[in-house]
Design a protein that fits this description.
The protein has helices spanning 7-20, 32-39, 41-75, 77-85, 90-124, 135-161, 165-169. The chain is mainly alpha-helical.
């Protein structure tokens, strides 16, 4: 704490010592943490922009997945009604409807992971000290993606599974 106390006084003493030697250049100083902040401000700004656009893209993807799940549940209403009449449980119907979407999300993760690894690795090569990318970063992202997709789809799947089967089958 003592090192950062009285910064202005210490700067005044340093300026006085500097001026005593009659150097042609003016007394100019900077703090190292400010220099690092300037050095990495571009990466910080880029990270904030990427975070905003990624959040927006995830929201749009979830809305699209929600709409597709609603369309699929509506289209398969009679099938779900027949399955319930024949004794299917709510969990099996949710698993049936959610499983299709989760397989597609898993295929997307398998395709996107190597591409993301390539670009992240190339970006990190520009830094002197860098973090090694390990497999569990991608595993955690995949798990999070599957959870978000499941939560998005499961609402429509549960809603379809809880419907009264006589409502969907009475028109036949």
């Amino acid at each position: 704490m003592e090192k950062t106390a009285n910064v202005q006084e210490k700067l005044a003493v340093m300026k006085h010592l500097y001026d005593r030697y009659k150097v042609d250049k003016p007394f100019d100083f900077y703090f190292l943490d400010d220099a690092y902040q300037k050095l990495y401000s571009h990466e910080i700004r880029t990270g904030n922009i990427i975070f905003a656009f990624t959040s927006f893209a995830i929201l749009i993807a979830c809305l699209g997945l929600f709409g597709l799940a609603a369309f699929t549940a509506e289209r398969r209403t009679k099938e779900i009604g027949i399955r319930k009449v024949l004794g299917a449980s709510i969990a099996s119907i949710v698993r049936l409807l959610s499983g299709e979407f989760l397989k597609l999300v898993l295929v997307g993760i398998i395709i996107a992971s190597p591409i993301a690894y390539y670009f992240i690795n190339n970006w990190l090569q520009g830094f002197a000290h860098r973090v090694d990318i390990t497999w569990w970063y991608f595993a955690a992202a995949a798990l999070l993606g599957l959870i978000v997709a499941f939560l998005t789809v499961s609402y429509q799947a549960i809603k379809a599974a809880l419907m009264n089967p006589t409502e969907s089958l009475k028109t036949e």
